[in-house]
Fold this protein.
Amino acid sequence: MQNHTFNGIAYCTSVIENKLLDSTFVQQTKSNPKEFTRLEKMCILSVQDVITHSNIDVKNKRTLFIFSTTKGNIDLLENNTPEIPEDRIYLHKIAQVISTYFGFANKPMVVSNACISGLLVIIIAKRLLTDNQYDNIIVTGADVVSTFTLSGFNSLGALSNQVCKPFDKNRTGINLGEAVASVLVNNQQKEDSIEIVSACSANDANHISGPSRTGEGLYKCLQKVLANSIVPDFINAHGTATEFNDEMESIAFNRAGLQNTPTNSLKGYYGHTLGAAGVLESIFCAESLRQGKIIASTGFENQGTSVAINIITKTESKKSTSCLKTASGFGGCNASVLYKLN
Amino acid sequence: MSAYILSHTKIKNNCLWHNGKLITQHSKTDNYISFLEESYKSLNLSYPKFFKMDVLSKLGILCAEQILVDKNISQFSKEKTAIVLSNKNSSLQTDIAYSKTMSDFPSPSLFVYTLPNIVTGEISIKHKITGENAFFIEPVFNAELLHNYTELLLQESDAVLCGWLNVDEKACEGFLYFVAKQTTKDEKKINFIKHNPNSITQLYIN
């Protein structure tokens, strides 16, 4: 996380250096970095990593690529990049570029559903696999920090000028971050694979840019995903560090009886990565389960919500077998997934 | 399980159709924004918030209104009704409009509409629908995708409001339809259309 200023406004963000991205891209792909946007280069590196490690056949008709993003190549609206064709502003075009690069047999699926996008594509992948439509699904969540998103969140007064403090009394808003995260979802159970036990989304039907005061949509999600009576060992919350989000989440967790469950938000480490957050943070959930660790919710000092929840303040070894991941976004959308270590 | 399309609306070429019947038409203007606002007035929707919305949300609200105020449709559980939408342009027209304000006075009221699923939120708020959500981006209308995901959702949901809402520089195009796995008690009042990619495509084209 680093401090910057933009149009005289101080903010804190976590970004990937262009030089490092380009050199890694050239080294790993032997392709021309000028032919791709920053976001696309990050996507190609991320998807390549999943393909290499899993050895799956992208040319198989039973393999699918699902791409999620909120703003895609939105930086093309401002930057003059003659090497990049104009149509790369379209989200489906980005997915097509990545898909063509690897030679996927199937046409990619593209989802853009605000800040639940990343978690929603995992939910969609689960449904497609449960119905046995595919053998392997690569799910990618992607968003970069752009002048567009910085300006927008700043216009809403939502940007913090220091490292964000999810659920803390002195929280002052979000830090934008950027990430591309990919996971492989399939029906094969392996020794350390993480099971998607249950998953759903729901809408607040309350406000387009603020969460429900009573956490309605998130509470509905929690009721559904926890209906099988597994109590999660910990929760990785959305925890953006805005006043309203964190307040809403703590209310929803209380309503669902989860007020004592150890809870973190990791956005103080790398910021809010928008459409990537659901995939990125699901990976952290998986690794927490695998490594038997729970991670401290950075930035938290004093309870800052009207009802208390149990925030993790110290990273420690703790064997856990299940965890709940939640996300909420503009448009009143909410999603949650229950993960279990096999 | 059999699923049926119980109702459908379409906005194209400055005409609004509901279940194949022409509801409003404005041939005088080729400005689609004024068409949407004229339609709002002629339908007597008293929902002033409409004028604060971006074009994509206006389009969605007008299409959804025709379907959801119908007694045969409003009886479905709002909690178990999903909304699955799609388009090509995401929120691009509003993104461009917002980016033009950035150097001067960045407009928060425009910024909040710079996501495709805000229209999902607007429809949900107006009709109190709280079920599953998904917004797909496709280069062209894709009946197979909508059909497939809707059928998967209907394993847990009672009904799905689906469709395509797209806005570009020159035109806007909306097509929404309501799918349910249960038939209503009042069967005679509605023409049931079997839910399959073919029937969806036919409704979209015709």
Q: What stands out?
A: Chain A touches chain B through 52 residues (CB under 8 Å).
